[in-house]
Amino acid sequence: MKISVLVLEGVFDTGLATVLDALAMANRLAQWTGISTPGFEVTLVGVRSPVHTALGLQVPVRMIADTTNPDCVIVPALADMTAETLLPALGRADVIDALGALRTWHGTGARLAAACTGTFVLAESGLLAGSEATTTWWLSPLFRQRYPDVQLNAHRIVVPSGAMVTAGAALSHLDLVLWLIRGNSPELAGLVAKYLVFDARLSQSGYVISDHLAHSDPLVERFDRLVRERLHETITLDSVAEALGTSKRTLSRRLGDVLGKTPVEFIQDLRIERAVHLLMTSKFSVEQIAEQVGYGDGVTLRTLLRRRLGKGIRELRPRE
């Protein structure tokens, strides 16, 4: 399988290294174990030379014009982690040239893959329009605003959609590569994960800092603060909207735009967040904690923790 890794100026060092190391390990392990797989022929490509990582390391790239049509193109993240730095980067001449290359590769039938802020580069090309995608969780409000024709599911780690596949924040570069390896050999992907001591993850939700997202919109920030103060109570959307001086419809729309969640889903997130904190830092019983976060009994809390986090009470309680 021919894989081109598109390296742009200021690429995120860890993202690039993760992609290269995981694919190289897959090739080595396939040879050692005799797993039948076509292997991965990896080429670093660029639209300018030389190319430097965000930490200043020079990357030896081949010019796109000198490469043959790949089966897959991976776009690692740019190390621009805020809207203030990412948006100007998307307007750079080299990035604009890269967008044309992505469209050309797509036209030849190549699969296009991107992780973290690399998903913005892919979306900027217009090729994600009408498709489902994910992105780095803390930039999801910006993604929704800039690419309204993309169906964003920022909770998921990896989202395949037709000839595109996107992955979430930072170290989801590894989730992305393992997904690609799994397409050739599930056995090999499992072996690579074991050698890297890597646990499969399906969601970014457990890593999201809700405060960070909430602060990007005044109404959502006020909603967040009000709900946190009332977590122990029965909370209705009518009472919250009235207290905030807005309508249920406006509140739901703003939460959807910023967080990609309904008010009920966000309230549940905050309750689980508080419950996990109390489980790990207090000696309260499960029933006492359930009461403090607005649930009538411990059974409901246990069920939600298992469903949302994939963990039970015993796994969250610190060992003494």
TrEMBL record:
Gene3D superfamilies: 3.40.50.880, Homeodomain-like (1.10.10.60). Keywords: Transcription, Transcription regulation. Residues 221-319 form the HTH araC/xylS-type domain. It comes from the Bacteria. The keyword Protein biosynthesis does not apply. PROSITE patterns: HTH_ARAC_FAMILY_2. PANTHER family: ARAC-FAMILY TRANSCRIPTIONAL REGULATOR, TRANSCRIPTIONAL REGULATORY PROTEIN. This is Helix-turn-helix domain-containing protein. It comes from Dyella soli.
